[in-house]
Amino acid sequence: xxxxxxxxxxxxxxxxxxxxxxxxxxxxxxxxxxxxxxxxxxxxxxxxxxxxxxxxxxxxxxxxxxxxxxxxxxxxxxxxxxxxxxxxxxxxxxxxxxxxxxxxxxxxxxxxxxxxxxxxxxxxxxxxxxxxxxxxxxxxxxxxxxxxxxxxxxxxxxxxxxxxxxxxxxxxxxxxxxxxxxx
Length: 183
Known about the structure:
The strands form 2 sheets. Strands 3, 4, 5, 6, 7 and 8 form a 6-stranded antiparallel β-sheet that branches. Strands 1-2 form a two-stranded antiparallel ribbon. The longest helix is centred in the middle third of the chain and has 14 residues, at 61-74. It is elongated, with a radius of gyration of 20 Å. The protein is built from 3 helices and 8 strands. It has helices spanning 14-22, 26-29, 61-74; strands at 43-45, 48-50, 81-84, 88-104, 107-127, 130-139, 144-152, 156-179.
């Protein structure tokens, strides 16, 4: 019997990240996202069962990893986000650094890193010169996350996220920086 899948929604930035890292053709990269397919109930005719279900090709393991991270990022309300990234796929080792020299007002800031797959992430978060480093030792195929909180006590400038990522063999990674409270 064909397998019917119901996808949560389109992968945020996943197709473009996937195509950049796996050399998709230009034609494949420009394809619009497909709508989820609906299943129709199986019917019985005499002694033979038939199914009128429409099938969708199974998502690749890479697409599943990207979708899990993208879904976690999308769940954070936009009004709380200071910055965020789309999920990206890492094979081997990579460093991702994002620097924002804008004003930082007093309050608690949180860096939350999400990863899915096999690998590890070392994260460094710097707010107005205060730096904290932490390891998210093991990414899991389902989804793993960890956070760093830093409280800025005075107005300043500078917010930096630095991720050292090791995908064994591959890991999808993304992050969100939020402002947790105002003082």
